Amino acid sequence: MVSIPSEGGVERSLLSWLDGVGWETHGQDGDRGANTLDEAYNRHSHEVIYWDLLAEQIVALNDDVTEENVEKFTSSLKRDLDAESLMDGNRAFYQLLTKGKSFSVQGDDGSTESVYVDLIDYENPENNRFHAVNQFSVSRETTIRPDVNLFVNGIPLVTMELKSQAQDNDWHDAVRDLRAYEDDVPWLFIPGLFNIAADTFELRYGAVGAPKEFYEPWNDAPEEFEDSNDVRQAIKALCNPESILDLLKNFVFYERRAGGDAKIVPRYMQYYAVNAILDRVREGVHKRGLIWHTQGSGKSFTMLYAAENLLSRDVARNPQVFIIVDTDKLNSQMRDQLANLSLEQWTEAESIAHLEELIEQGQSELVLTTIQKFEDVDPDEQGNDEVVVMSDEAHRFMEADLGSRLDAALPDCYHFGFTGTPVREGERHEDRNTFREFSPEDEDYLHRYSVKQGIEDGLILPVYFTLRHEMEWEIDEAGLDEEFEREFRGLSTDEKREFIRKNVTATTLAEIEPRVDKAVEEIDQHYNEHVAPNGWKGMVVTPSRRSAAMYGERLIERRGEDEIEVLYTATNDDPDLIQQFHTDSEERDSIIKAFKQTDEEAEEVTPKLLVVHNMLLTGFDAPILKTMYLDRNLKNHNLMQAIARTNRPAEGKENGEIVDFQGVFENIDDALDYDAETKAYAARDKDELFEDLKDQLETVMGIFDGISKDDTQEAAYEAVERISTHPERREFKQGFRRLQNLYEAVAPDKRLINEGIERDYKWLSRIHVAFKRTTGGEDDPEDDMREKTREIINENVEITEIKDDFPTYKLGEEYLEDVEGLDNPGVKASQIAHATREHLHPRENQNPRYKRLSERVTDIVERWQGDEISDPDAVEALKSVEEEVLNVEKEAEEQGMDDAEFAIYTHLTEQTPEAIESEEQAEEVAEEIVSQFRERVDRGYYGWKTNQQTIAEIERILLDVLVKENELGHLIRDDDGFVDSIRNYLIENHG
User: How far apart (Å, rounded) are the C-alpha atoms in residues 386 and 55?
Assistant: First the structure.
């Protein structure tokens, strides 16, 4: 017997999975499961809570509530469902669900006592009743009937809407239905935790009141819930009773926002990372851990959830929790976040003295501070023996003195590092290494959320890169040689070669005028053709302030001052070229705010291109930024941070892009050394290195025996004098270099502070600065030589063209992450299907071929999941579709048509070939329709796509082009859907 795939099948499967993880389910037989509970507990159709069931449970869970007074309590509780707005009501009822409700009970002696009544038992989950039913109908002015509801003690906590892709519906449609239910019958959602929208292949969940863009997947699970079926795994991992109660009790924030409060529930990586932190603190075996989550995954909220749980649960007796950031800007952002959240026990360290006071007091609360405030905090002042530290952007500042100061101030603490780009710079122990700093032996990280996962989940976008690093140089070699000889005739041949080798660097070349001219020409053209038409913006990343100024001048000349901003700081000692673009902190904040806005949002023209040197490569989130023009050699965590600037999702944005003028991406595997097989770093014992450091410090300090170490002119003068001549000069230079390496290898380490090593090292560092200054002088001759070198190259070099025939590469699975499990054809088929469907879904109305290809994907997946075709055959079939998807855009480009023209042309030649005379006619008709559409339809206002005036004008265009100009009126008469299809192609491709 054949059963036709339908929503009912999805519903029954889901109920069976819920039954398997501990829910009492009704409706698996296909009947309305809600009817069973309605009859058992006398529910009226307008009620959203099973009051009789709740009353039974309240009596069972609370000694002070009896069968005699429970009705009085539930009558009071019913009034709590009445609220002016859904979010106000949800927030108030959440307090009742998690903290209990106050209730006056009368004693035997007639006195009254106020008690708190629990609605749910979180300590003993088995004391609760868990029901999952289908077709729960609620009627008042209107009637809704969600597909599945989850009730705890009769209270509806989760509402699910399910769709079947076999019936041409998906989770997007389910979210629309859920949003409509919230508008029509808000009181069902007053007690709600979150909603679920699912279809045959995918599941998304969102907090009550969340807009569609905040419905996200749950793509991970503990081992006991792991499953090859993604939807089944998500249901079991997210909706098992233990997780539901944990999320409800411990993982809900309410955030004040300009447009109204928002309810926030965690993403799956946040939830599992927090629980990993809690387990580590609870177990007490290791005191470190690295949370390696890619940018865009919400590390700030992960830290805040962890802080809230540490402070409110019995993980530790009375902990003090620190969140540490490394810039004032991040501190301000976190402070504003905390001020808008429903998190109570927190304070901000306002100064070094205040931080020291907070550490000494050791009060159980969350303390927000910057790492810089630890600079002068005294060691061993920790007043609480249960301190948990969470360091944001840990790869940047957990090194050298600040890290040592932190370790000395809080010597007995749990310390968790959070980063999207850990540093593992090399094999030597002195190389910076986030893993070594935060991970116990034999552990790379406590929890990981990768770039690949972020792309699959839609939290970040894939990034494409295009190489533009090969340039045709025309060099006047004779002139170059002659100029060098004349300017540097005082140097020997070997000295000249050595100078050129050291000083003609990538930065020098990036400041050569002909090269900058050519690169600016390329940027200007690329931005006009590929970035500006879609309303996106760009960033030019340069290796120096000089090159930034050169780019800025030329781009302003081409595009005007309103479109270009250059960001760096300058001093009065800098040349005019650099000084002209100096910005202070307030100016930069204003520029960045304007850059993040669209022209529609802003009251005036906003900058379109930012030119930066050392700014905005980390912690800068601007979804409107699509393209980075990279003329700076970045590697490892710095490169990952730069990539992350372009990968933030925005409506209509499908990927980020990097145009590479330095060749960074030519050898991407060398630039991003993040694979799990990275060579083990040198394993020298840190105590051994510490002893080496002390010996070396004693050796270098010995050079200055007999010289006072106080802060006077005489002491500094005498110290520099001693190392100004041989042999002390050589001993100091070599000895201090080795000392630096050892110090950086050991730091951070609280012993540097406690044993006075940091103080001596700082003294030597200041003497080293003075030594270099006196030996180099104010007017360093090498600076003058570098400037002359630049001038010589400028005058003897031309750039004729930039090679532009490199293909565009996708950054993602194959470059940024190890693709685990791809040897398994089943996993590969699932990933290809997911990626292809994600690519096709938003394009289905853009071209008739996309619709057909989407149907093919669904057909292949259904045959594969039904065991009609094998895993390898499914992979090959899906790859074939993937290639055809890419060919649609390629073919349009080859034929010289834009997307709308090609869609109409494709429809005419493939859907209605008998109705036209030739392909040439189809091409002409498509071109004319699009031309008139652009000329006659006003697209300069919000909502133009659905405006009746737009629709009517498109129909008039079709009449003019098809009927009046080409005698093709039969296309409109014979095909009811023809006009709708053409209209969709025009609107979707111009949106």
Answer: 41
CA nearest 65: which of 94, 109, 103? Answer: 103
Distances (CA, A) of 417 to 333, 393, 638: 19, 8, 17
- Which of the pair, 76 or 768, is modelled with greater confidence? 76
What phi, psi does 75 have (nearest 5°)?
A: -65, -40
| Most confident residue range from 48-57, 696-705, 817-826, 892-901 | 48-57
User: What is the bridge-based pairing of β-strands 148-152 and 130-134?
Assistant: antiparallel
Judged by phi (left if over 0) then psi (alpha if -120 to 50, else beta), residue 652 lies in: left
Range with lowest mean pLDDT among 10-14, 132-136, 639-643, 795-799:
795-799
pLDDT for 494: 58
Decide: 905 and 922 in contact? Cβ < 8 Å: yes
Report the alpha-carbon distance of residue 182 to residue 208 in Å, rounded. 8
> Minimal CA–CA distance to 504: which of 781, 799, 788, 776?
788
Q: What is the DSSP letter of 991?
A: -
The pair phi, psi for residue 568, each rounded to 5°, is: -170, 175
CA–CA distances in Å: residue 653 to residues 366, 537, 607, 939? 37, 11, 19, 19
DSSP state of 341: B
110: left (phi over 0), alpha (psi -120 to 50) or beta: left
- To the nearest 10°, report the CA torsion of 360, 363, 365, 370: -10
Q: Please give the single-letter amino acid code of residue 6.
A: S
Instruction: Give one DSSP letter per residue of 817-878, joined into a string.
Output: S--TTTTSHHHHHHHHHHHHHHHHGGGTTT-HHHHHHHHHHHHHHHHHHTTSS-HHHHHHHH
CB within 8 A of 85, min separation 6: which ones?
A: 186, 260
Residue type (1 letter), 218 = W
How far, CA to CA in Å, does 968 sit from each of 513, 892, 903, 929, 977?
A: 58, 24, 18, 13, 15
Helix then strand then coil, % of the chain, to nearest 5: 50, 15, 35
Segments of 704-796 assigned E as strands:
none
* Strand intervals (E) in 508-644: 537-541, 564-567, 609-612, 625-630
Q: What is the pTM of this model?
A: 0.68
Here the tokens at position 360 are 């000494």
The SS3 of residue 160 is: strand
CA distance linking residue 368 with residue 509, whole number of Å: 44
Among 954, 851, 847, 957, which residue's Cα sits nearest to residue 904?
847
Mean pLDDT over residues 117-123, rounded?
Answer: 95
- Dist. CA 910–CA 907, nearest whole Å: 5
* CB of 293 closer than 8 Å to CB of 269: yes
Give the three-class secondary structure for 695.
Answer: helix
